[in-house]
Amino acid sequence: MAPSSYQSAIDEAKALLGDRLSTGSSILQTHSHDEAYSKPCLPDAVAFVQSTEEVSQLMKICSRHKCPVVPYGVGTSLEGHVIPIHGGISVDTSLMNKVLEVHESDFDAVVEPGVTRTQLNDELRATGLIFTVDPGADASIGGMASTRASGTNTVRYGTMRENVMALEVVLADGRIINTGTRARKSSAGYDLTRLFVGSEGTLGIITKITVRLFGQPETISAATCSIDTIEAAVDTVIMAIQMGIPMARIELLDDVQMKGMNIYNPDMSFPEKPHLFLEFHGTEAGVVEQVDMFKAAAEEFGASDFQWATKTEDRNRLWQARHSAYYAGKALRREADSLVTDCCVPISSLAACITKTKQLIAKSGLIAPLVGHVGDGNFHLLILFDPNSTDETNAATALAASVSELALEFDGTITGEHGVGSGKKKYMQAEHGEAYSLMSTIKKSLDPNNIMNPGKIVDVN
Amino acid sequence: MAPSSYQSAIDEAKALLGDRLSTGSSILQTHSHDEAYSKPCLPDAVAFVQSTEEVSQLMKICSRHKCPVVPYGVGTSLEGHVIPIHGGISVDTSLMNKVLEVHESDFDAVVEPGVTRTQLNDELRATGLIFTVDPGADASIGGMASTRASGTNTVRYGTMRENVMALEVVLADGRIINTGTRARKSSAGYDLTRLFVGSEGTLGIITKITVRLFGQPETISAATCSIDTIEAAVDTVIMAIQMGIPMARIELLDDVQMKGMNIYNPDMSFPEKPHLFLEFHGTEAGVVEQVDMFKAAAEEFGASDFQWATKTEDRNRLWQARHSAYYAGKALRREADSLVTDCCVPISSLAACITKTKQLIAKSGLIAPLVGHVGDGNFHLLILFDPNSTDETNAATALAASVSELALEFDGTITGEHGVGSGKKKYMQAEHGEAYSLMSTIKKSLDPNNIMNPGKIVDVN
Hints:
The structure is a homodimer. By secondary structure, chain A is α+β, with helices and mostly antiparallel strands. Chain A has four domains: about 5-95, Uridine Diphospho-n-acetylenolpyruvylglucosamine Reductase, domain 2; about 100-215, Uridine Diphospho-n-acetylenolpyruvylglucosamine Reductase, domain 3, CATH 3.30.465.10; about 220-325, Alpha-Beta Plaits, CATH 3.30.70; about 335-420, Alpha-Beta Plaits (2-Layer Sandwich). Helix content of chain A is about 40%, strand content about 20%. In chain A, the strands form four sheets. Chain A has a seven-stranded antiparallel beta sheet with strand order 15-12-14-13-17-18-16, sandwiched between helices. In chain A, strands 5-6-10-8-9 form a five-stranded antiparallel beta sheet. In chain A, strand 17 (about 370-375) and strand 18 form a beta hairpin. In chain A, helix 9 (about 230-240) packs across helix 11 (about 285-300). The radius of gyration of chain A is 22 Å and the shape is globular. In chain A, about 60% of the residues are buried. Chains A and B meet through strand 9, helix 8, helix 9, helix 11 and helix 16 of A and strand 9, helix 8, helix 9, helix 11 and helix 16 of B.
């Protein structure tokens, strides 16, 4: 049962939104969790907002009653970002799903937060332009901005940090602001756009996003190869970057992950050792040159089993293994639950960090396949465990914690792209030191009543 | 004479720094202005700091006495950023000029704020890596971070926003924070790095900068061509970007600027019409392909007078005209003073915005050559006027103001790369609306006594 002050907020929100303010139990259930292995919490109500003005009215109501507000995209976040741990109203943006403007000459588009990345790319098809950020899940662009998402082609095209040009945001008190213009760059004051990107709904609700687009490459080529050790694989990538090869994707999959691949895709039979999966974008001649240069570099580090493809169906077949990584990982122990974590370190430390991680996995007794966006120094672990075993559950949690600690030892960050949510808040002090108190100062100044997704990123009193 | 509270701060600073705290009149003079056409103001003292710890001690002193502090790099800012308009202490970082770390495999370096960009590139020479941001002046990297500088090769490599990975900052109260790690990306909380980049010393003093580096390109090629109209020149660039040509620099110079070129470089005889100056980076074959593709695109829009060069000396000769743009512009009226302004608009509006700007120049009766980073939608005006004529001085100021207003009409920003300082503060409300009050909220929360470069970017009470 909602506290009485929340109930007043809910009543007023109901008057504002009618049927689009729901307290139905299945709706509450859907909005009680994301894809993290975290305890779900029900919101007291879910608001299906349709416009910025509505969000503003809703925030004024919630601000008056000090009722928590948790923005919700499609629920694919991985650290409990959308879990209403203090109750209140979950603000679902799925009805705000229009691509508002596409500016072909300016390589940008303005979208509502509920637009998903595949929806945007579908609507862009005729323009020859693409939105490049690809975190795997078909996340909403509002959610991707909120968590500073990235993914497989960040090494070439950047994260949401680089690909969000401006935002419209509704603040805790209902004020509506625009954080930028459509100009490609600006030196006009504090970078509010970047302040809100990655703030996980703790500073305001994103109601419009101007995203950067790129031209569809003339030619795309895909390649895979196997390499005996993680170290050789990372060294190959460092050399390829030093050579200036503009790789669009460069993914590392470890031996355990490759074993899962073979189980999940019975028609495949990869050698069970580390693999690199690559994609090259450019002109026809440029792509051939990139592949040749990469092959030469990789062979110096003992790579073998080269395959490459340019035709769409061949590329898709080649990359299917990478795209099915999650299910292939799960195939290693079908009955298990999974806990996903990520971290990011300087690329020169990546091999050492992964080696230590694999030692910790061995010690834990668990199976945990590893996939990395190696060009960025970012890797993921899919930790498989039996949720009915307290020992295994503890071991899984401890392993995830160790990965965060290792990342800090290697001058890295506790999360490269998954975010903090409630899951990683406990490591924030260790990563940021005194700077963490500054996050708290900023949070308090923008949200003095602590109603914006309270309990995420930083605690305030 | 310094107010007595400042005098107490200065006395304590003297005890801390000895001879490195100066009140000598020529030193005060040097720190009273930058390259803006703004009224100089003397600081009460200049502190030549040598370490982060010293800056921290100094900030504690100034915080206790509410004494203004103005960070100073090399004084090449263009909007009065370093002018101590409320007196206080100018903190000169020129003695903090060490390149502390270069991580070749990670493509990053850690530098002190007084390191200049050419110094860094000189020290990087043996590594095959380059720091790419080039605002023209040999600015300090601390200053470039503070003003979110960019320049000619932003279109390929990004601005300081993209090229600063992390900062060490001393806050108003003397606390020392680190805003990030050396990981290439992170989703661990608010993006404090981007908050300080472009904050012009109003939120803290930058004492260490981790910058991103790139591999030196295998081949560099330069090209120039003339095009009949600004519109055709911009359309050429839009098409070249759509074709995916990864141009490293793409500069527009208008007919007036080209006239100045011919005067300043007597051995040159460019046709007096708009020109594009380009640079291509890549493999040998890749660069040839880029040039060919660009030439084909440009010819569709009527470009002529193509020249290109790959050998260093030929490239330098070709680009010398562009690199001497400032002096060439001044050569149009040698006895005049100059007022420099910039703005940035979506590239689809650039031709229209420049056309309107040129109409305003004609109306003003002044000479004002124009140079643009056309790939970013950013252009500069060098307004020449007689400082002894009130009419001309007013006309110059009015013209600069009109350019800011035009930029906003075209959904752009009042400054693409020069910053706000005190010069452009008056347009901030018009650009940012309600968001401008958020900048004030942030400023107050981080610097409650308003001692960090007060009067710049945003006024607080």
